[in-house]
Amino acid sequence: MSETARAPRIAPLRPPYTLEIERALSRWMGGAPDVEPLALFRTLNVHEDLASRMRPLGAGILGHGLLDPRDRELVIHRTCARNGAEYEWGVHAIAYGRPLGFTDEPLRAIVHGPADEDCWGEQDILLLTLSDDLHDSASIPDGLWSALTERFTDAQIIELVVTAGWYRLISCVINAARVQLEPWAERFPRE
């Protein structure tokens, strides 16, 4: 792919920021003052009003959910992988996946393997299958629904679906705007 093809279609905001944008980016970054705001957040804040309405849902999914963080990240990683959103997949691999114990093999399998690859347990397979079905049909087949209800509450199932939908949306923004990869984030593993 040529450098021109990889150039962002929507340039992320760059310093100096207005006071309002600086505050907004600080909220997106969780108040981390010494870290450069992510390119995704600087791109979303091109539309400051919309970004301000999006942030609470994203923050809620990551910080205030009912799901076990590992379960949440399986859905996020698989959704981003299925949507070709290497940017978000790579940020999550570093920030969440690795700290939760995702090693090279599971990270490779999330991107390239079937939902029932040998490295997964039963619950993992359910969550990867859920991510695949939501990606492929925006629905959950009855058999999978029954299996999910044996392990998750209705509120958790809603959260799983919303999480997959949120990261599908984020994947669309990343891919359409051609948000450039963070230099420190992981890349999709080779097959």
Question: What features would you describe in this structure?
Answer:
- The chain has 191 residues and is mostly helical.
- The chain folds into two domains: 13-63, no CATH class; 69-177, Up-down Bundle (AhpD-like).
- The chain has ten helices and no strands.
- The protein has helices at residues 3-6, 19-28, 39-44, 48-63, 69-82, 86-97, 104-112, 122-137, 142-149, 154-177.
- Helix 2 packs parallel to helix 4 (48-63).
- The two termini are 19 Å apart.
Topology:
Layout lengths: L2 H4 L12 H10 L10 H6 L3 H16 L5 H14 L3 H12 L6 H9 L9 H16 L4 H8 L4 H24 L14
Low-confidence stretches: none
| Beta-strand content estimate | under 5%
Return the domain count.
2
Structural class, please?
mainly alpha
Order of SSEs, N→C? HHHHHHHHHH
Query: Total helix count?
Result: 10
- Oligomer status: single chain
CATH structural class of the largest domain = Mainly Alpha
Instruction: Describe the largest sheet.
Output: none
Give me the CATH superfamily of the largest domain: AhpD-like
What would the average pLDDT be, to the nearest integer? 95
CATH architectural designation of the largest domain: Up-down Bundle
Principal-axes shape call: globular
